[in-house]
Design a protein that fits this description.
Blueprint: H1 3-11, H2 13-20, H3 33-50, E1 55-60, H4 67-73, H5 75-82, E2 88-92, H6 95-108, H7 112-118, E3 122-126, E4 129-132, E5 139-143, E6 153-159, H8 165-169, H9 171-185, E7 189-199, H10 207-215, E8 230-233, E9 237-243, E10 246-252, H11 267-286, E11 304-306, E12 318-322, H12 327-330, E13 338-348, E14 351-362, H13 366-380, E15 385-389, H14 397-404, E16 411-414, H15 420-432, E17 436-439, H16 444-453, H17 461-477
Parallel strand pairs: 1-7, 1-8, 2-5, 2-6, 6-7, 11-17, 12-15, 14-17, 15-16
Antiparallel strand pairs: 3-4, 4-5, 9-10, 12-13, 13-14
Helix pairs in contact: 1-2, 11-15, 15-17
Length: about 500
């Protein structure tokens, strides 16, 4: 390595990534407009740190666009190489993810090229805390809710504080994340430091959303005393990037690289993702601009009705039950229903479709209900599997259904663990795309009425059926629509 090359690698984060890129043979580094812009902003933040000025930066980027490579995998090794006496704190929603980033960065310091460039190498430590030779600074990796107190940072990285849609839609989880950010992470900064929050935003009220509200005059929560953050956002479609003061517009963020060559994703990739996510998911996960969810969740105007069962695909079908069994459910003025939906989910050209053949419902005594369930199961036949949710408020539902169908069918228990509205959000894009298929029957009007009214309607048993069915089918394929997937 020449002295000039050494200086470039030390001073430029993009050149550091180019030189130490670990997938040169299998996946060459593709530098997008956003890649270049983020790296240059990091360079300026480090320069400002060296001159006594702190940086508070929010970077929002769509999923699969390399944000964690730029900041969480490569930056700790680069920064500790040039600032061996400074502390780095690397935090994500889970300790295991933060430690995987930390391990990657630590392994870079073991390379001969690193030793040659920075005149130092890995000294000692573990995946959750390590240092390099010639300095007392450390790189610490932790989950947002664990292991932060007692440590500090000159470079603090918070990468993906939310694990998925279920957490994002939960008010209690958002409050928990905010408290962990303000009380634990943000209090760890040195007098002069760099704070980077790097995320694909999920919700208007998540950590980034709350910071924006605190920083914005005219909002209800505006607080001029709260630290002002600079926000750099890269929407996936129809956006604009500022590179060296020049505004560059684009149709699709990573369709081309920063030099006009082929990028990582073609236009069709963005269109498919938008179709899968729906408007609500696209606004947050692709456009980095979460919206307030308005009105009822499901667009029923695009439902496709079929006159004949032969028009349905030959795939695995489930009868998913929701049992009204508690006193609260059965003794109120308008009692809940016991309902079972015969359904399947499958993918056509990469997009999810929901197929519903039948909904069976009853409000009756326990004995009548049990007879009804057995009758429906016998009619469905052995090829249809039976499932029921095993939740805190229906913990005996699995046992009840197993007793009712003893010797007739095996019952598949389901544990979903997120609230009704959050899980409905996973199925919402399927309605929006017009990929819900219904077999015409007497049950259609009641079903449609409940779906239109959700989540403000009186009943939700039929909605619970098909949202639980979605998770059941996804468990068999290992895929979750608009949830946390590899690479996000």
């Amino acid at each position: 390595m020449t002295l000039l090359e050494q200086l470039k690698v030390c001073k430029s984060h993009l050149e550091f990534m180019r030189f130490f890129w670990q997938k040169k043979k299998t996946e060459p580094l593709i530098v997008g407009l956003h890649t270049e812009a983020i790296c240059k902003r990091i360079d300026r933040a480090i320069y400002d740190l060296d001159n006594g000025k702190s940086t508070y930066l929010i970077i929002t980027v769509p999923f699969r666009h390399g944000k964690s490579d730029i900041v969480s995998r490569y930056l700790p090794a680069h920064f500790i190489g040039t600032h061996p006496d400074c502390d780095v704190m690397l935090v994500t929603y889970a300790s295991s993810l933060a430690q995987s980033f930390s391990n990657f960065s630590r392994d870079l310091t073991l390379k001969d090229e690193y030793r040659e460039c920075f005149q130092r190498t890995y000294a000692r430590g573990t995946s959750d805390g390590w240092r390099v030779t010639g300095g007392v600074g450390t790189v610490t990796a932790s989950g947002l809710s664990s292991g932060i107190t007692g440590k500090g940072y000159h470079l603090g990285i918070l990468d993906d504080y939310c694990s998925g849609r279920g957490e994002a839609e939960s008010e209690s989880m958002r409050e928990h994340m905010w408290n962990a950010f303000t009380n634990d992470f943000f209090t760890r900064q040195a007098p002069t430091s760099i704070t980077i929050i790097l995320a694909t935003p999920w919700h208007v009220d998540d950590i980034i959303g709350r910071i924006k509200a605190l920083n914005s005059e005219g909002t209800q929560t505006y607080d001029p005393s709260f630290q002002k953050f600079e926000v750099i956002s890269f929407p996936a479609m129809d956006g604009e990037v500022d590179v060296d003061g020049k505004k560059i517009k684009y149709d699709y963020l990573f369709e081309k690289d920063a030099y006009g060559n082929k990028g990582r994703f073609e236009a069709e990739w963005y269109k498919r993702q938008a179709a899968s996510l729906g408007d609500y998911g696209t606004a947050s996960l692709l456009q980095c601009n979460p919206q307030i969810r308005g009105g009822n969740l499901f667009d029923t105007s695009k439902i496709m009705y079929h006159n004949d069962e032969s028009e349905f695909p030959k795939t695995k079908y489930y009868r998913v039950w929701d049992l009204a069994h508690t006193a609260k459910q059965t003794q109120k003025e308008d009692p809940d229903w016991t309902s079972g939906t015969l359904l399947a989910y499958n993918k056509i050209e990469g997009l999810w479709h929901l197929w519903i053949k039948d909904v069976a419902r009853i409000r009756a005594s326990a004995g009548e209900r049990d007879t009804f369930i057995r009758s429906v199961s016998e009619k469905d036949g052995m090829g249809v599997s039976i499932a029921v949710e095993n939740s805190l408020d229906s913990k005996d539902a699995v046992h009840n259904l197993q007793t009712i169908l003893n010797g007739l069918r095996r019952v598949i228990p389901q544990k979903i663990g997120i609230d009704k509205v959050a899980r409905a959000g996973y199925v919402e894009p399927i309605f929006e795309a017009g990929h819900v298929h219904i077999l015409r029957g007497k049950w259609n009007l009641d079903w449609l009425s409940e779906v239109k009214d959700f989540p403000s309607g009186k009943h939700d048993d039929q909605v619970d059926n098909f949202t639980a069915g979605y998770f059941l089918c996804c468990q068999n394929t290992g895929q979750i629509l608009s949830g946390k997937v590899a690479g996000v």
